[in-house]
Amino acid sequence: MIMLNYKPILAIETSEKNCGVCLYFTDEKYFEFSFRLKNAHSEKIFELIDKLYKTSDYSLQETGCIAVSSGPGSFTGLRIGMSAAKGLAFGSSLPIIPVPTFEAMAFQLSDFYLDGTQFLIANKVNAEEVYYAKFQIKGNNYIFVENLSIIKHSDLKQNSNLIFGNVVNHKQLNETAFLFSAPSAKYVAKWAEKFGSDKLTFDYDYLEPNYLKELIIKGMNK
After folding, report:
1. CA 196/CA 177 separation, integer angstroms
2. What are 65-86's pLDDT values in tens digits?
3. CA-CA distances (angstroms) from residue 42 to 87, 142, 184, 220?
4. 133-140 long-range CB contacts below 8 Å, 24 or more apart?
5. Which helix (H) or strand (E) holds 19?
6. Is 54 in a helix, a strand, or coil?
7. Cα dist from 196 to 144, 150, 166, whole Å
8. Helix, coil or strand: residue 119
9. Element of type H or E holding 186
10. Which regions of 37-140 does DSSP assign to beta strands (E)?
11. Are 127 and 208 in contact (CB under 8 A)?
């Protein structure tokens, strides 16, 4: 577990439509703000972070590290979150912890479901594909049952597992699907605190989101 001289963790989550930030000390003390507004992440994220520090009466210089949701997810959202983290970290000489988005989601779900529960996380890549992973809750944690990959929408047909993600409105899925497509910023911070010690880095130039799939610009000539 990361202690960082008991300083708080600044967490950033922009992998999907929600944009969230959290200044996390403990489960009993944290400050969190988020919004859901299309195409506004880059415009609002620093406004939210500024609000965090004004509300908490702390400063960025009193922060231990910056945790940022690293994907997979929205190409644009991930770039915005990672760029914000890098800019803040560079200006304040803070380390960054890239947090795997689906694992932070699984960690969050482990607080709400019983030991042994299996579930899928499936978020849209495009009209035909989804980002996919299968987990099982083990104690107050999670384990992978099937590793993160890209599969076809059709492979989720008639699936009896709990399904979380933004594919829940797909006509082929059943009532066990729930719209939960990204972790809260609080759980990005909690994941970083518990599991992120080997990911902590000052090598900002080498940090990139985990897109898992190449960004293809429509109409671009090869």
Report:
1. 29
2. 999 999 999 999 999 999 999 9
3. 13, 32, 18, 24
4. 133/102, 133/106, 134/161, 135/106, 135/109, 137/109, 137/110, 137/113, 139/115, 140/110, 140/111
5. strand 18-26
6. helix
7. 17, 25, 26
8. strand
9. helix 185-195
10. 65-69, 96-99, 118-124, 129-138
11. no
What is the Cα–Cα distance from 81 to 15, expressed in whole angstroms?
8
The one-letter amino acid code at 106 reads A
Question: How does pLDDT run across 9-47, given as a tens digit for each residue?
Answer: 999 999 999 999 999 999 999 999 999 887 889 989 999
Block residue for tokens 């992978």: 144
How far is residue 66 CA from its own chain's centroid?
A: 13
The neighbouring-strand residues paired with 20 are 13, 34
Q: Are 67 and 11 in contact (CB under 8 A)?
A: yes
| Residue where the block lists tokens 């607080």 | 111
* Structural domains of the chain ordered from first start: 4-100+183-206 (3.30.420.40), 102-178 (3.30.420)
The DSSP secondary-structure symbol of 112 reads T
